[in-house]
Amino acid sequence: MIVITERCVGCAICMLVCPAEAIRVEGKAEVNIEKCESCKKCLIYCPINAVSWVE
Amino acid sequence: MRVAVIGAGLGGLLTAALLSEKGYEVEVFEKLPFFGGRFTNFNYKGYEITTGALHMIPHGSKGPLAKLLKKAGAKIEIVDSKPNGTALYRGEEIVVNRKSFPLKSRLMFGFYYLKNLFREVKLSEVESRLDDFSAKFLRAFLGWSLSVTPSQVTFSEVYPIYEATYEFGGPGIPVGGCKSVINALIEVIKSNDCKLERNTVRAIRKENFGLSVHFYRRESKKFEVVISDIGPIETCRLTELKLPELSESRGIKYSIALEEPLIDHTSVMFTLETRRICGINQVTNADPNLGKKHFLMAHQPMITSNVKFEIAEGLRDLKEILKGYKYELLAIQSFSDGWPVNRAKIGCDCKNETSIKGLYLVGDGAKGDDIEVDGIALGVERVVKKIEKEVVL
Ligand SMILES: Cc1cc2nc3c(=O)[nH]c(=O)nc-3n(C[C@H](O)[C@H](O)[C@H](O)COP(=O)(O)OP(=O)(O)OC[C@H]3O[C@@H](n4cnc5c(N)ncnc54)[C@H](O)[C@@H]3O)c2cc1C
Q: What is the reported pLDDT for B73?
């Protein structure tokens, strides 16, 4: 499962690249787990390593 | 002569392009799956939304960046703003030029210029002596272009921008947005047979022959020169370098899609009577391909550290400014800690040379005497000249 950590500053790059439109950002990113397709694109594109994957 | 560039932000790519043109063997390393850092864009719902910048080059086609892009052979077209800027004041949009400011305030500015020669003057002191329009314009200008308030900066820190604006003129928008600048630089680098590689650098070490760059999985490579575009703090983390602590400037950017246009020119409309929002541009006026409909970007500095509160204040401003307009809020992006508006507040940038031989800093945090990407260009120019002088091919 994708988890947004405390480090997130809200730059929204994850939202821009998410193919499932599962991310909303307002000060901090929030993932809609129902919509998330687990592609991990948000994790790879996050410039400050604020996204992690938890099994 | 092997040169490594760490980070494919604007500063790194500009340095790599210029050095590759001169015949140096350059390799660029970037940890992210895209190039351009905070100066590129992604298409989102039909709009070219950026990773940071407001699609603007501070001094347009005549500024330091434009000059270096030309020198590097990077082909891009910049639409210069006409007029230099406007101000939304007391419900009216006014074109801003010298004459928009009352004579008394212009004289006051001159007075503080002289006073500043003798002692450091905070801009808030100047602000308190200006007429209402000039004071509010000063605040909006600083918030839009530097994400700072008058109490955070001194007269001498900001004066070079005033001079640069006078010399080079107002902003411009590159056709295709930030990304077109990045793509043009990449094309130059590749055409000179230099490499761009996706790889995260985890250490830079001094060696007898020069410097070694270390990656994950224990790989390393040797270089005579290493150019770091990842900012002073990260560079210190990867080396034994010690640099003074920097304070960054933070801001929030709103991307908005509009049915009917709000602005009828290609420059910035500074918003003077707001809580937070300092200015808005409508970038589709310069390049219609930047958005399906009219595309606005609004920007504010972060005044408190409470992001939610800052956004709520910004949204209240936007609601008032866009009253009666049909619009859609595409993205709210906040910038701080590791992905800020500026790694160093104006006037606080580090030098390009470091105490480690062969290691140079470029980009935000090591800018020359100008703002944003034009400041980055001045820093890059200095590094390229230095390398050419000291290191033979
Ligand atoms: C909201 C906002 C609005 C702005 N508006 C404007 C504007 O309109 N006009 C303007 O001129 N400027 C503007 N700026 C500023 C401008 O975007 C930046 O100054 C500029 O993009 C910084 O470029 P850079 O080369 O210093 O670094 P960056 O763009 O930060 O690039 C650094 C690169 O290094 C990579 N990296 C980091 N660590 C490593 C590592 N260990 N190994 C490999 N790679 C690594 C990163 O992934 C990144 O790609 C704005 C900024 C923001 C945030």
A: 97
Amino acid residing at B271: T
pTM value > 0.95? yes
Asked if the Cβ–Cβ distance from A26 to B308 is below 8 Å, we say: yes
Task: Give pLDDT tens digits for B235-250.
Answer: 999 998 999 889 999 9
Name the residue with higher pLDDT: B327 or B216.
B327
The domain spans of chain B are: 2-79+176-246+345-392, 99-168, 251-333
- Counting Cα atoms < 13 Å in the Cβ hemisphere of A35 gives 11
| Residue to mutate (ligand 1; options B35, B39, B233, B238; most atoms within 8 A of CB) | B39
Sorted by sequence, the CB contacts under 8 Å of residue B247 that are 6+ apart come out as B344, B345, B348
- CA distance to partner chain B, nearest, from residue A11 (Å): 5
CA distance, residue B360 to nearest chain A CA (Å): 22
Task: State which CATH number among 3.50.50.60, 2.60.40.10, 2.40.10.340, 3.90.660.50 fits the domain covering B251-333.
Answer: 3.90.660.50
Pocket lining: B53 vs ligand 1, CB cutoff 6 Å: yes
CATH code that applies to domain B2-79+176-246+345-392: 3.50.50.60
Residue in the block written with tokens 């100008």: B370
